[in-house]
Sequence to fold (495 residues):
Amino acid sequence: MENILEVKNLCKTYDNFELKNVTFHLPKGMIMGFIGENGAGKTTTIKAILDIIQSYRGEITIFGLDNRKEEGRIKEDVGVVLDDMFFPEILTPNDIHKTMKSIYQNWDTKMFYDYLKEFSLLPNKQIKTFSKGMRKKLEIATALSHHPKLLILDEPTSGLDPVARAEVIEIFQNFIEKDDCSILLSSHITTDLEHIADYITFINQGEIVLSKTTDELLNKYGIVKCTEKEFRQIHKEDYIKYKKTKYEYEVLIPNKKSFQEKYDIAVIDKITLDDLMVLMIKGEE
Amino acid sequence: MIGLMKKDFAMIKSNFKLLGVLIIVYTVMGFLGEMDISFILPFMCVMIMISTFSYDNYNKWDAYSITMPNGRKNSVRSKYLATLAMTFAVSFITLLLSFLISYVRTETIPYEQILVTMFGTIFGTLLVLSFMYPIIYKFGVEKARIGIFLIVFGLVIIGSFLLPYIDFSFLAKTLSFLEDYILIILVAIAILMVYGSYKISERIFRKKEF
Fold:
């Protein structure tokens, strides 16, 4: 399958933080959920992909082209929502339209104003009068309105209420159904990702811990809840991490089926991305 | 790039009213034969454009602008072109008004002198722009303002100490020799100055991380 985004051995060093050989790829027509706790390196990785930070090592290609050498060609087809609010508050959606119309060749005026209508955003109101959720919606509408082939979204649903989140998620789903477009989506709200992401890439302390299909993660991985005595019977190679709670052991296993065949432990829970993150970060090996 | 210029102009549209008021004040004062404030107007353009850096910085726009096609290059280029466009447009309006005032008030300043004054004003404005923009790109608006204040203050202090010891007769001779070519020389200096400043700013912004 053709990859729309490839990140290979990305390294970036700060005084108190380091990205270590970050490597993953996003196939065409897929949504990748990019997860990790605050400060794990999600935003730094996204900034490197978008050339917002520069002094890094490694190779990043978008549509098969080098992200720095061919940035003019690449960015025409990339829609972006960054973690922070970025539109000058003094502007109105009308101003944003006039600006973007002269920047993107494929800017779609009708699509932009349709989104404004759908999101109940008044075109002539200054952005400073908008709530956080409304500002996010404007950013999403802008990112979508130049027909990008790749959306890179850093926390796009933060600040949105559940109804608005569902609305936006549906828009993202419709987006990838058209023309084999792809989305790299970082989010803390992992329940959203469980519904829409085809792949999950998990970063922890600047390192990619896993990058797999969501189906594989949610169907194959599991959490065994057992007593200490039962836990002692489990071989180290059959689990990834474990956490001792007040009453039991929670053990993250990579393959429910083979585990069930090997051990006689009754309680194997379905895993959620939240469970996975907590156990991978807080669990012991 | 045109889009980024439109964004800057949209951000300062409320300042256009102020500029309009100043032009009216200038015209009225000119007709009444009061103080000539034409030199303020082009300078105001640079000062207004500098406020767009503050808006960009406050709203974290620069990081986003880099995600656009040729974002790093166009961000810097659009700032310079927007400032130049505004400065020349306002200077042109001021010049026309000055000619009109001079025409109506027959006893006032000759056309040549109006042209020289306006030319000097534009040159001074471009000097400020060329000097300030790279500093703003490097250190941000707030630090740049303090830095420029300190530099100007320092130059005034040093100048006031050195001035009594400088022999200006040689300078006067050189200037009289250059008199015939002064316009061409100043235009060339202005072009080089603005282009050099743009290249420095572009280089600073190209390496900047957000």
